[in-house]
């Protein structure tokens, strides 16, 4: 069986479950494990260092013109002749969507099975792992994989209960300019880590959120994790936030509880990376209970500490 993944999260879960021998093609955004795989999907933003504002403008213009940011290498896809193609319908900016995938698949001489993975909440992402493995005839592999991850989330919940940890008032930003709140599975990650984000949109799309609303909400902890940005990239754009009126008055800022985090723990819906995100959030929300190990400590940084190290 030959599989092509048009979705980085699916690629990541395939590797995490040890099913990569089935994989014969990926997107340019797929994780480092898939670096040697043929790149079937490309993007007009690939290799560019656009700012948050520029990316938002490019996407808005493309959407208004009915165009996609992504394109498929039809010849390469035909040469692979896949049996299964994994795709998504969550975000037109993050990945190629099912409509574009269907258009590409219609041109193939052999029609593959199209498997859309479009989770809305955290439980949906868990089930996506089962959907992937089942499509490859390896459902038991997914069940073992998920059982190990559930032990990690159960441990966090047990520690929060044992320590009677209060819920922290959180905001997690998915984009800086314009500011987007968090949606889909991220509010559930926040809840699993001992927080609550009242500006979020659970199981729905993230949306533009006005700065005045954030000032009134006044989060205790602010997590900044723009989609597609690592810590270094986000730090380059922090002036867009710190220059806003009232920034210094936010409780999170006054108490040095602003964090910059790698996006792949949140807007990359592989269940393994999302569980890693829950672990990271628990360390941010409740550092008196949870301590980041050496690897986890590389995935996020306290903004005030980053300024001291410059």
TrEMBL record:
- List residues of the Fe/B12 periplasmic-binding domain: 2-289
Query: Which SUPFAM superfamilies does this UniProt record tie to the protein?
Result: Helical backbone' metal receptor (SSF53807)
What is the protein name given in its UniProt record? ABC transporter substrate-binding protein
């Amino acid at each position: 069986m030959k599989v092509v993944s048009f979705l980085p999260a699916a690629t990541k879960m395939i590797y995490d479950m040890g099913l990569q021998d089935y994989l014969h093609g990926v997107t340019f955004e797929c994780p480092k494990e898939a670096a040697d795989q043929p790149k079937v999907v490309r993007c007009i933003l690939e290799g560019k260092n656009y700012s948050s504002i520029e990316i938002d403008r490019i996407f808005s213009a493309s959407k208004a013109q009915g165009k996609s940011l992504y394109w498929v290498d039809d010849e390469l896809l035909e040469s692979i002749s896949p049996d299964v193609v994994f795709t998504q319908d969550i975000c037109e900016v993050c990945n190629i969507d099912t409509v574009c995938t269907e258009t590409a698949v219609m041109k193939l001489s052999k029609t593959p099975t199209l498997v859309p993975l479009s989770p809305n909440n955290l439980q949906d992402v868990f089930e996506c792992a089962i959907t992937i493995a089942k499509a490859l005839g390896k459902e038991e592999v997914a069940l073992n994989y998920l059982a190990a991850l559930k032990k990690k989330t159960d441990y966090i919940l047990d520690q929060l209960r044992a320590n009677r940890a209060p819920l922290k008032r959180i905001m997690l930003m998915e984009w800086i300019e314009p500011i987007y709140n968090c949606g889909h599975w991220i509010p559930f990650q926040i809840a699993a880590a001992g927080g609550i984000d009242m500006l979020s949109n659970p199981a729905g799309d993230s949306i533009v959120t006005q700065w005045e609303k954030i000032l009134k909400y006044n989060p205790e902890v602010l997590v900044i994790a723009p989609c597609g940005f690592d810590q270094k990239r986000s730090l380059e754009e922090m002036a867009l936030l710190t220059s806003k009126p009232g920034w210094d008055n936010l409780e999170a800022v006054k108490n040095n509880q602003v964090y910059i985090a790698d996006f792949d723990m949140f807007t990359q819906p592989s269940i393994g990376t999302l569980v890693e995100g829950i672990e990271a959030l628990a360390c941010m929300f409740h550092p008196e209970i949870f301590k980041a190990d050496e690897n986890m400590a590389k995935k996020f940084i306290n903004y005030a500490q980053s300024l001291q190290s410059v």
